[in-house]
Specification:
Oligomer: single chain
Structural class: alpha/beta
Strand order of the largest sheet: 11-10-9-8-4-2-1-12
Number of strands: 12
Number of helices: 14
Distance between the termini: 38 Å
Radius of gyration: 23 Å
CATH architecture: Alpha-Beta Barrel
Strand content: 5-15%
Helix content: 25-40%
Largest sheet: 8 strands, parallel
CATH class: Alpha Beta
Order of helices and strands: HHEHEEHHEEEEHHEHEHEHEHHEHH
Length: about 425
C-alpha cells in the first residue's frame, strides 16, 4: 500500500512562509545570474559634468566594490558538470536495502538526492543511522560536499513510508482535515520533528489533489485510499495549509502534489497507462486553488504528475509539458521554487515512447527527476550533463534548476558554506 505514495506522487492567502525555509516565489533571487545597471546622467549645456565633491573637498562618488558571491553561487561554480547534473536527480533506497548500497550511485554517479521507498519499519534511531550513512556518501568528490535531500512519503493512513518506535501512527488526510487547523498544525509539527530526528529533510506530502465526491473511491490513486483532504478546493486548502506549516516549523521541507491534480482520473499511474486523462481541467480550473494555497503557505516544492491534461497540453503528460510546468505553474501561478517529478519509473512513464525522462522533464521546466529505479540514476545524471554540454538552451535550464535546488538545500543547512 505504501508504494502508492508517488502517484496515484488561484487562492492566495497572503501568509508568509515559515521561518528558515525559502519562500518559493523568491527563488529567482538566486538564479546565479547577476546584472548591473549603470546609472548615468547627462549634464545640461553649460554646466559642469565633474564629479561632485563633499565639503571637505573629496569626491562624493562612491568607490567601486565587488559584491562577494552568495553561498549558492559559490557552490554552483565549484561543481563539475556531472555534480551539477546530479543535484537534479533523486533515487530510491528500496526497503531492506543497505544505505551503503547507494555508494555507486552517489559517489560514482554523483546523484544528489535519495528517497526512502517501499515501506520501512524501524525506530527513529535506526532510520537516523541509515540517513547518516547516506549523508556520509555526499563527499567532495561525489557531490561537491553538498548534502542530500533525504525524502519520504509521510502522508498518513496507507501512505506512511516510515513506521516503528518513535513514529506516530498518522491518520488519513480525510481524518486530518477534521482535526481543525490549530490541532493539525500541532500534530504535523510533531510528525515533522520525528522525520527531522530520523534524518529526513523532505516530506513528499501533502496531497493537494481534489477528488470529486461523485467519483470518490473510483479515483484509484487518491480517493481509493482516503489520501484527499476533501472534495472541493477550499476544504483541501484548509487541510494542506496547516500540515505544511507544521512540517516546515519542524525544519522539514514539503511538497504539494500531484500538480495540476490527479483527483479526476481513474487509473493509478504507478500501475497502468489507462484512465490517466483529465479532460476537464483547464488553466483557470478552481481545483488549482488548492495548489496555490499550498504554495502560498510556504511549501518548499511542487510534485508534477504523469497524467495528461488535453485542455492544457494534448500531446505531453504534465511532467514533460512546458505548457503545464513553465506555463501554468511557473508563469501563470508565479511559482519559482523546486519542481519534482512523480516517479518516472511508474507504468505511466515506462509506457511512453520516444521519451527521455530526465532531460525531457528539465526541458519542460522541472528541477529534480525522481526515480524508483535506483540503478538508472547514474545514467540520468550522465544524460543531463552530456546534453548540457552541447545545448546552450538546455544548459541554461540546468543552471536555473541547480540554483533552485541549492537555494532549498542552503535553507536546510546542506551546503558546505551555509
Amino acid at each position: 500500500m505504501v508504494g502508492l505514495a508517488l502517484a496515484g506522487c488561484a487562492v492566495h492567502t497572503g501568509e508568509p512562509g515559515p521561518t528558515g525555509l525559502p519562500t518559493p516565489t523568491d527563488a529567482s533571487a538566486s538564479t546565479g545570474s547577476t546584472s548591473s545597471t549603470a546609472a548615468t546622467s547627462t549634464s545640461p549645456a553649460g554646466t559642469s559634468s565633474a564629479a561632485p565633491t563633499s565639503a571637505a573637498g573629496t569626491s562624493a562618488v562612491p568607490s567601486t566594490t565587488t559584491t562577494p558571491p552568495s553561498c549558492v553561487d559559490e557552490v554552483a561554480e565549484q561543481l563539475s558538470p556531472r555534480q551539477r547534473a546530479g543535484q537534479l536527480v533523486m533515487v530510491a533506497l528500496q526497503v531492506g536495502s543497505a544505505p551503503s548500497s547507494l555508494a555507486p550511485v552517489v559517489q560514482d554517479g554523483h546523484v544528489g538526492n535519495v528517497l526512502y521507498l517501499g515501506g520501512w519499519t524501524g525506530s527513529v534511531e535506526e532510520i537516523a543511522a541509515a540517513s547518516a550513512t547516506m549523508q556520509d556518501l555526499a563527499t567532495d568528490g561525489a557531490t561537491g560536499g553538498v548534502g542530500l535531500l533525504v525524502a519520504a512519503d509521510q502522508e498518513g493512513g496507507e501512505v506512511q513510508q516510515l513506521r516503528g518506535p518513535g513514529f506516530s501512527d498518522m491518520p488519513t488526510a480525510l481524518v486530518q482535515a477534521s482535526l481543525g487547523a490549530d490541532q493539525l498544525t500541532r500534530d504535523a509539527t510533531v510528525w515533522g520533528e520525528q522525520l527531522a530526528a530520523a534524518g529526513v529533510n523532505l516530506n513528499l506530502a501533502p496531497v493537494a489533489d481534489v477528488v470529486p465526491a461523485e467519483l470518490g473511491r473510483g479515483n484509484d490513486p487518491i480517493g481509493q485510499w482516503d489520501r484527499e483532504y476533501g472534495h472541493d478546493p477550499q476544504t483541501v486548502a484548509a487541510g494542506i495549509v496547516p500540515f505544511i506549516r507544521g512540517m516546515e516549523r519542524a525544519g522539514v521541507a514539503t511538497s504539494v502534489k500531484h500538480f495540476p491534480g490527479i483527483g479526476r482520473i481513474t487509473g493509478n499511474p504507478d500501475f497502468t497507462t489507462d484512465g490517466l486523462v483529465d479532460d476537464v481541467l483547464t488553466a483557470d480550473d478552481p481545483y488549482l486553488d488548492a495548489f496555490a494555497a499550498g504554495i502560498d503557505a510556504g511549501a518548499s516544492t511542487v510534485m508534477v504528475s504523469s497524467a495528461l491534461y488535453p485542455n492544457v497540453d494534448a500531446e505531453h503528460p504534465a511532467m514533460f509539458s512546458a505548457a503545464v510546468v513553465d506555463g501554468l505553474l511557473r508563469r501563470q501561478m508565479g511559482y519559482d521554487g523546486v519542481v519534482i517529478s512523480d516517479d518516472v519509473n511508474a507504468a505511466a512513464v515506462r509506457g511512453l515512447s520516444g521519451v527521455q525522462p530526465a532531460t525531457d522533464f528539465i526541458r519542460a521546466g522541472g528541477d529534480v527527476v525522481l526515480t524508483g529505479a535506483t540503478a538508472s540514476g547514474a545514467g540520468m545524471v550522465a544524460q543531463i550533463a552530456e546534453l548540457a554540454g552541447t545545448d546552450a538552451d538546455f544548459a541554461a535550464r540546468v543552471d536555473a534548476s541547480l540554483h533552485r535546488v541549492l537555494q532549498l538545500k542552503e535553507a536546510l543547512g546542506l551546503l558546505p558554506c551555509g
